What we know:
Layout: H1 2-6, H2 10-30, E1 35-45, E2 49-50, E3 53-54, E4 56-59, E5 69-77, H3 86-93, E6 99-102, H4 103-106, H5 113-138, E7 147-150, H6 161-173, E8 186-189, E9 192-193, E10 199-200, H7 205-214, E11 219-223, H8 227-231, E12 239-243, H9 246-257
Parallel strand pairs: 5-8, 8-11, 11-12
Antiparallel strand pairs: 1-5, 1-6, 2-3, 4-7, 9-10
Amino acid sequence: MLTRLSRLPRPAALAICAAPLAALLAVAVFAPLPFAIALPGPTADVLGSEDGKPVISVSGAPTRETSGQLRMTTISATGPSDNTNLMELARMWFRTDRAVMPKEAVYPTGGSDEEIEKHNLEEMTSSQTTAAKAALGFLHKNPDDVKVDLNLAGVGGPSAGLLFSLGIVDKLDGDGSGGDLTGGRSIAGTGTIGADGEVGAVGGVALKTQAARRDGATVFLVPAAECSDARADLPKGLRLIPVTSLSDAVNSLRALNRGGEVPSC
């Protein structure tokens, strides 16, 4: 083969050599890759209603009327079985309103689309139960006496836990001094919650800040470990407050309302 090519004119030889290389590049460009493309998703006010029913319903204890908003934030991403190729990734890589993420970071459990959706919804249900325990524990209320029902369908994963807990605290106790925990503001945020009130890190924070500002939030509560991610492409007019626990978040919002010192990223 080398002897035969050596007898060809140089342009013809280069053309023959380039053909398989071009074919390989074409395969590489259009071959499916294990990445997902994510973008800012919808937000939801946990102090509001979903399909005509309050997102947070409490029985066994008096509740209060609230003003302001507590918005949980989400990201939207290509599905676990969707294929993404090099050309698509290249187009998205430099966009600030998109993120290229390994599929296992978005869908860590694997499995079929149906199995992953079921798992995410189960995580949300578990997160809601834990959020209620954390909030009632913070308020020193007996969970045998006070029942909390959380109603938010179609959203999966555990990252709304902090906002659910804050919503319960606001419904039951406000800022502890007769006012709203939100101070009438639109507050957004993200973070998992443990039964002890510990706040855990989540993914896609830089996209969630964009979703929050798009939907009118002026303050964003972020797990402290993800401050640097949240600062990346931070939308103008959105203030970051780092938190490590539910009590951190409540104390920061109380300080914000009275003009006190509030931590920042």
